Amino acid sequence: MRPRFTVGASDGAARAGTLVTAHGVVETPAFMPVGTYGTVKAMTPEELEHLGAQIILGNTFHLMLRPGAAIVAAHGGLHRFMHWEHPLLTDSGGFQVYSLKSLRRIGEEGVLFRSPVDGREVRLTPEDSMEVQLALRSDIAMALDDCTAHPATEGEARESMERSMRWAARSHARYCREDPPGGLFGIVQGGMHRPLRLASLETLLRLDWAGLAIGGLAVGESEEERLGVLEALVPHMPAGQPRYLMGVGRPEDIVAAVVRGVDLFDCVMPTRHARNGHLFTSSGVLNIRNSAHQDDLTPIDAACDCYTCRNYTRAYLRHLDRCNEILGSRLNTIHNLHFYIGLMRSLRAAIAVGELAAWAKGFLAARRQPTRGF
Amino acid sequence: MRPRFTVGASDGAARAGTLVTAHGVVETPAFMPVGTYGTVKAMTPEELEHLGAQIILGNTFHLMLRPGAAIVAAHGGLHRFMHWEHPLLTDSGGFQVYSLKSLRRIGEEGVLFRSPVDGREVRLTPEDSMEVQLALRSDIAMALDDCTAHPATEGEARESMERSMRWAARSHARYCREDPPGGLFGIVQGGMHRPLRLASLETLLRLDWAGLAIGGLAVGESEEERLGVLEALVPHMPAGQPRYLMGVGRPEDIVAAVVRGVDLFDCVMPTRHARNGHLFTSSGVLNIRNSAHQDDLTPIDAACDCYTCRNYTRAYLRHLDRCNEILGSRLNTIHNLHFYIGLMRSLRAAIAVGELAAWAKGFLAARRQPTRGF
Question: Taking a C-beta distance cutoff of 8 angstroms, is the pair A88, A139 a contact?
């Protein structure tokens, strides 16, 4: 079924809403943990559920290379393959292909690239991406886009954006050809050039999408550039559709984007940082590898009630990290995802009571107070 | 408190019993998952508990190097450090020092070795081992032994065994000096030389131990040699004390030793095999890396009711293994530990009803039937 979005409350430009899918309801603003290869790294689906994750993201690019769409389809789709019963969004592969840089060749038809797994040449057209995503049976699929390089001249950004728009139309045609399992989101491109962003949005709005995403950010631009694009673009996006800012980001970036009216986020940061020993707390990021934690009998964050903070000391977590123990990655990931998911819950609550501005101010102020051991 | 052992049922030489410790009861025969660095690799304590593990093993050698006994002691011991509330056995470090081979120097006082972590010279005497184990506050501590090389001449084995016996007496004196948190096990040595094994046992029995272990096996000897030692030794071991066969082993080895009267086992095999994709089933070991599993929609073992087999296909597990995903190590470890712990439960049940011989025969016969995909 096509996801249905309803705004329940708003506070300035920010909204709290619900996105109803065939696999359940997502409360927005929402953060989607990234499950690249059909697993959110180090977590079971039950753990994600227990942490309050309502939707996760799967990577089309990775899954088409390993294990291949046919094997996932033989299981009945990505939900059953990975034993995740709740909503799933799949990206289109566009951003991953963009990240390959020299290993790809972009043409009007699509992209040819060398597989980083085994070196074979792989084709990814809008139709290919849709066919993989239809096989994965995600609740939300993404149009294939040509992610614009940064920095890009106005001419480069325009050429890339216009290609994305042609690919968006082809994605839409292919995805909607038969009765799809979910809904398709279009992706606004245009680099840091605001008129191009608005032109991209206008082009997309000629078609009927289940939601709209903002692509081509989190590519190395400054915070000012990113917020500039959001401020120019978001007010023109349809109020009744979910807005997804792809690949963003740090907790403070998410707060800033929610304040400006964004509803959905994904980022590898909480899970990747966890495996590298960087742990989120209300006062900033703590590095568990720091020798100050060697004999520290306190939890990561005394105010946190996650499984890790309730049961383990910093000294134990530092020890696990030093010994490269799997449990260290697990406990750190639980903590970081708990932080992100808790952040989204707080944002929703603040919007519901109309106190987002004050809440955001307090949140950002606390993160500027370093504490012992950071 | 000193553990108390009671035999509840016997069947031939085999016994089913209970070992009562300050942290709970262990039903024997029991398998102890190995938690080298204060974590059974890839598992949380709650998962171990859920799998039915009643006792786990911690490695003195590893923990004294990282994080060091003082940091564990500051937490109140290994139980609290690692958040495991049930019985814990610590080994003495003797076997790990033996495995260092050229990096160690053995003298009458103890062993000097180069730390494999940072190259510094470390001393391990019987007194050192006891002090570390007392700091870890394990329910069962092990005497420091000089593990005899294999093969060894009668003279070499005698010299090594006699040193172990002198170290056993020093271990006993140091461990019992103050009120210890648990009980101490002596370790029988003597290589493959049966008269030396009996002499070692006789020497140990001059002191009062909470249990006795059989060391110096699982060092590369043949199955015949190992069973020969067990058959010569076990009938002379006190019936009222638990008997622990250190480092053994494969499921069939455990069954053979239980039949001969052994009560306790530990081995890295289920956890290490899991991380290498080798999965135990009633009909043998399956290698999940085998390409035959690539599109196999069945579980590891259709007869298994572990979390992994209830929720995931071989195709998914093979995919996780290929992608080096942490979840693969987790799911495989759950399955293998479930197999080992289930094996011990079956052995206890068979002993209780006096049908061990028939059960063991059926178990061994099933493992000789390879199935598709192995």
Answer: yes
